[in-house]
C-alpha cells in the first residue's frame, strides 16, 4: 500500500510542483492551504508524512507542528518543515517543536524526493 | 664715635702732613732733614690703613648686602648670619629688614590669592578629567605641530597603545599624515576665508588608518578657538570603525555581485519563456533545448539566492543602532521596571552572564511583558533566566515549572503592544528587529520544566580579551609650544620664550664607557617660567646587565623593579620624542648626556638639542660660594627638597631651580639662549683651568 503524504502550503505553484513530484514517486498525496485545514486533513486521512510550510495564514507551521506532537496518536507521523533559506532560527525552532527535518526554499526537486524517501524508511 | 667722624680723623693727619710738606717745599719754613721723609711715610701708612678699613667694613659688606637683596628678590629672606654686621651699614641693614618683611608679607598675600585661584583651577581640571575619562570616543588635543598635549583613556584603549603613553607623542606617529594634514589645512582655510563660519564648517570628518595595527578610525577634527592659549592647536575625537567598515564593504560587495550574477540567468529565463509561449508549434528539439535552459538557469538563480540569503543574514544581524549589553545587566533592568497591574515573578539568574548586541530597552520591555504573562497564565511566581551561548547568538531561556506555551498563545502575547512605547511597538517587532523568533518547548535538561527561548544577537565582545584599562594619568595642561626652524635663529630667542625639558637619569654606575647604563629617565617640561604639570616623562629601563648593589643603595632601584621594563632601545626614542623642540636642562648634565650619547646609535636617535647645566649656571650666578650641589642650590634659592636620588625627584628639583635662575640671569644681562650657552661655556673653561690648577698644586 502506498504511503500517504500531506502537502501544506498557501502558495499554489509550490503545491502543484510538490504534488506532481510525490505522485510520480509513487505516493498518495493530499493537500491543504493553511494550518487549520492541515490539522483537519491529518485527523481524517492519517498521513505518514507532512510537508509543512512555516509561513501560513490561520495557524502557522510551528503551531501545526506543536499540535501534532502533543498528540500521542501521531507519534509516528514524520514532519518536514519548508522554511525560507537564511532563516536558520526558523529551522531551529521547527526542530525544537518536533519537526523531523526541514527543506529550505528554493529547493532542488531531487533533494525533496530523497529526503521524503529517507524519512519514510524506503 | 660715628663712622663719619672716624673717617675725618683718619683723613686729617695725612692731610696736615701734606700741607706741612708743601709749605717746606715752597721755601721760608725750614724743617729738620728727616722730617719730610717721616711725614710722607706716616701719611702713606694712614692711607693704606684707611683703605683696608674701608674694604673690610664698607665695600665687602656692600657686596654681601647686594647678594642678600638679590636672594630677597627671589623670595628668600636674608638670614642674620648672611647680613653684614657693624655700624657702618647698620641703617642700610635695618632698611633691608624692613623691606624684606614688607616683601614677604606681600608675597604671602599674593600666594594666598594664587592658591585660592589654583584650587578653583584644580577643581575645574578634575571635573574636565572626569568628563574626558567617561567619554568612550578617543579625544586628543594637539598643538599646531601635531604633538599630543592631552588625551583621554579611551584614546589609548582604542589605539591599543595602553602599554605606552601617547601624550607627548606626535599624532603623525600614530596615524597616517595625509588625511590629518589635509583636514587641518581645510579648517585653516575656512577660518581665514570667513570669520563667522557656521558651526558645521568648523569641523571636518575623515577616516584614517592607524600606523601600527591598521585600524580604521572615524575622526572628527576641529580647530581650537583662536582666542585660547592653544591657538592653532586642534582637537580630534575618534572611534574605531574597522568592523563597521568591513560590514559596509561586504554588504556593498554582496549587492553588486548579486545584481551581476542574477542578470544573465534572468535574461536567459525570460527569453526562453517568451520563445516557448510565442511559438506553440516549435520543433521538439528546440523545445527541449529551451526547457533545458530554463532548468539550468533556475538552478543558477537558486544558488545565487542561497548565497545572498546567507550573506545578508550575517550582515543584517549586526545593526548599528544596537549596543553591547551583558545579560546580567539586562536582567537587572527588568527588575527595575515600574510595577504594572501584574507583578513580575521572582527572577532567578543562572549561568554566566554573556554579552548581547541588542536594543536593551526594547528587549528589557519584551522580557518584562513575557514574564508578567507567565505569572498570569501559568501562575509561574518564580522564573529562571539563563543565557546560553550559540554560534552567533545568545539564547535567553526563561524557565518555569510546567508545560510549554502553545505557539498561538505566544504569538498572541507577542502581538500585543509593549507598555511605555510611544510607537506601540509589539514584541514581534522587537524580535524582528533582532532578526529573531521565539518559541517555547519542554526543557531537555529539566524534567517537568519548560522554557521560552529568545535568541538574540551575540556581541563580538564575547570573544575579545578585555583590554588592560589605561589608568595612567594622561591629562595635560594646555600650553602653546613652538619649534624654531633652525638653531641659528634659536640662539637669538629670549630664554623666557623657550621650551625646556629638565631631566635626570639614574644609572648602574658612573662609567658609561665601561658598560654602566641608564635605568631610569625622568623629565619635566618647563615653559613660561612654569613646570607644566602632567607633562612629565618617567620611565624605568631594563639594563643589559644587573644593577650593582652599591648603585641600588643610591637610587633604590632593584633588579626586580626593572625586569619587566622596556629596554633602552624603546625608552630612549620615546624620551627623544618627549624632548622634541625643547632645550635640555640637567644638573651636571654632561654626566647624563654621556650615557645618552653612548646609546644613540643603538636607539636610532640623535640628541642634538642644546643642553643647559644648572651646575654651571649656579657657578655663574653665585660666584661667592663653592657649593653648587643640587641640594645647596635648592637651599639657596628656597626650593623644598624631596625625593632626592630618584630620576623624577632630581629632574623636578632641577626644573624648580632652573625656573628660579631665569630672573637673575636676565639681571646679569644673559637674555638669549646663545648668551646663556656662551656664558656656561666660559664657566666650563674656568672650571677646567681650576681643575688643572688643583692638579698642578700638590
Pick out its properties:
heterodimer; A: 122 residues; alpha/beta; Rossmann fold; 5 helices; 44% helix; 22% strand; B: 698 residues; alpha+beta; Beta-Lactamase; Helix Hairpins; five-stranded antiparallel beta sheet; five-stranded mixed beta sheet; 21 helices
What do you see in this structure?
The complex is a heterodimer of chains A (about 120) and B (about 700). With about 120 residues, chain A is an alpha/beta fold. Chain A has a single domain, classed as Response regulator (Rossmann fold), CATH 3.40.50. Helix content of chain A is about 45%, strand content about 20%. Chain A has helices at about 10-25, 35-45, 60-70, 90-95, 110-120, and strands at about 5-10, 30, 50-55, 80-85, 100-105. Chain A has a five-stranded parallel sheet with strand order 2-1-3-4-5, sandwiched between helices. The mean pLDDT of chain A is about 90. With about 700 residues, chain B is an alpha+beta fold. Chain B folds into five domains: about 1-135, no CATH class; about 135-240, Beta-Lactamase, CATH 3.30.450.20; about 245-315, Helix Hairpins, CATH 1.10.287; about 325-465, Histidine kinase-like ATPase, C-terminal domain (Heat Shock Protein 90, 2-Layer Sandwich), CATH 3.30.565; about 485-695, Nucleotidyltransferase, domain 5 (2-Layer Sandwich), CATH 3.30.420.10. Helices cover about 50% and strands about 15% of the residues of chain B. Chain B is built from 21 helices and 17 strands. Chain B has a five-stranded antiparallel sheet, with helices on both faces. A five-stranded mixed sheet of chain B has the order 7-9-10-12-11, with helices on one face. In chain B, strands 15-14-13-16-17 form a five-stranded mixed sheet, with helices on both faces. In chain B, strand 16 (about 585), helix 17 (about 590-605) and strand 17 form a beta-alpha-beta unit. Residues about 465-485 of chain B have low confidence and may be disordered. Classes of the chains: A alpha/beta (about 120), B alpha+beta (about 700). The interface of A and B includes residues 85, 93, 97 and 104 of A.
